[in-house]
């Protein structure tokens, strides 16, 4: 990196499977609800006075729809990165959490209590997230510009935060971000990160406008 960068990350708005308490993962069947659209619009208004050089988003529909609201009216096209997709949770995807807990008690307990050791079909989804989060950071930070907007999912957002701060996958549940929550990072020229803000949600409950 030749200059410092700022990155603002937004979790997508409320989705249909959030509302139904289903395991989402990388499935594209969960869509933004009316409430989710309203949350995205609140984010857009809250960030209206901040200039972004580019917006990167997961191509999965609930994030894509959120990004389209946030980036409406901008000249620069949205950039969709596969590295911002949510974790692939295989057979758990689409199941209600209460059913997953009953049908796959061992796997579900590991997912909730020891996620870095959660394994499905020979794959460790959380460990894989750390790899893709590092890929996403490289793609974002080596793009020309000073300030970027990123729209993604909760698990990927956790991985982005932890990898930026040098935390391993065992700290996966150390942070949490609400639907429509905003996080802000500052990076120096060496690529070292400072977490400026975590899970800002004032805009969800008022007409708060951010200035940073």
UniProtKB/TrEMBL annotation:
The residues that hold substrate are 11-18, 62
Q: Which CDD domains match?
A: HP_PGM_like (cd07067)
Q: Which SMART domains match?
A: PGAM
Fetch the InterPro entries from UniProt. Answer: His_Pase_superF_clade-1, His_PPase_superfam, PGM_Phosphatase
Q: Which domain of life is it from?
A: Eukaryota
Locate the active site.
12, 86
GO MF terms here are: phosphatase activity
Its family remark reads: Belongs to the phosphoglycerate mutase family.
Q: What is this protein called?
A: Phosphoglycerate mutase family protein
What is the originating organism of this protein? Actinidia rufa
């Amino acid at each position: 990196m030749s200059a410092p960068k700022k990155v603002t990350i937004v979790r997508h708005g409320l989705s249909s499977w959030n509302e139904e308490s289903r395991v989402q993962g990388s499935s594209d069947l969960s869509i933004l609800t009316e409430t989710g659209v309203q949350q995205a619009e609140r984010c857009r208004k809250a960030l209206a006075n901040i200039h972004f050089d580019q917006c990167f988003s997961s191509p999965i529909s609930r994030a894509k729809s959120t990004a389209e609201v946030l980036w409406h009216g901008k000249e620069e096209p949205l950039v969709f990165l596969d590295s911002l997709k949510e974790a692939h949770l295989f057979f758990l995807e689409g199941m209600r959490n209460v059913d997953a807990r009953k049908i796959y008690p061992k796997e579900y307990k590991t997912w909730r209590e020891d996620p870095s050791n959660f394994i499905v079909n020979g794959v460790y989804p959380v460990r894989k997230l750390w790899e893709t989060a590092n890929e996403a950071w490289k793609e974002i930070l080596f793009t020309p510009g000073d300030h970027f907007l990123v729209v993604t999912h909760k698990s990927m957002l956790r991985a982005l935060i932890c990898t930026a701060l040098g935390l391993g996958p065992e700290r996966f549940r150390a942070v949490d971000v609400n639907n429509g929550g905003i996080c802000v990072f500052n990076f120096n020229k060496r690529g070292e990160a400072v977490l400026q803000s975590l899970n800002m949600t004032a805009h969800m409950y008022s007409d708060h406008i951010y200035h940073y």
